[in-house]
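FW: tagging you since you asked about this chain on Friday. Here's the raw sequence from the shared folder, copied in full. Didn't touch anything.
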Amino acid sequence: MITIFNRKEVCVCQSMERFSEIRNLLMQSNIKYTYRIMDRNSSNVLGSQRSRAGTLGQNINALKMYYVYVHKKDYDTAIGLLKGR
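HL: got it, structure written out here
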């Protein structure tokens, strides 16, 4: 089981294609992973960024950040896999 205490970040990216590629590589290598997606336009206590500032001129591809984590014991293997890609 991967928890916040035993995980390491292997990737942060803004591309859905890269995120999918990384997940597929990890699955094919039987490396368990978790992920988190941060959306800049999502709501928070103060309202959404979109409602305060609008979206004119924003790069739509840069609105989401994808974070991928693996267990600490699998970190070196995962990094080795991703360096080749």
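FW: The helical segments are 16-28, 49-53, 75-83.
HL: agreed, and The radius of gyration is 15 Å.
FW: great, closing this out.
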